[in-house]
Design goal:
The protein is mainly alpha-helical and 105 residues long. It has one domain: 434 Repressor (Amino-terminal Domain) (Orthogonal Bundle), CATH 1.10.260. It contains 6 helices and no strands. α4 crosses α5 and α4 packs across α6. The radius of gyration is 17 Å and the shape is globular.
Length: 105
């Protein structure tokens, strides 16, 4: 048995050759982008999940689920999160096939 470590970038490069993988990844692109934006907003605000939860009047596990991309948060929830981080929600519609920051991963 070969226990050679393979860098994750090599694995992703190989997987991207598979059309089914690319399609599944692109399907999740929105979820990745949202989770990344939430975490970035909290990081920029320099606050913990616990503090975000307190400001949103919810629990820390609920914030963790939100940042983990679990569920489909409402616009109301996103606005509460934005208020808790001192930011605002901005929604942008892009043409299909437009490059997104997540595609560089």
């Amino acid at each position: 048995m070969n226990n050679k470590m393979i860098p994750v970038e090599e694995s992703f490069a190989e997987w991207r050759k598979d059309g089914a993988y690319r399609q599944a990844y692109e399907t999740l692109d929105g979820e990745f982008a949202l989770a990344s934006a939430l975490i970035e907003a909290r990081s920029e605000a320099n606050v913990s999940q616990e503090e975000i939860a307190r400001r949103m009047h919810t629990s820390q596990p609920a914030v963790a689920r939100l940042e983990g991309g679990h569920g489909n948060p409402s616009l109301k929830t996103l606005r509460r999160y934005a208020a808790a981080t001192g930011t605002r929600v901005r929604i942008v519609f892009e043409p299909v096939g437009a490059a997104s920051p997540a595609q560089g991963r």
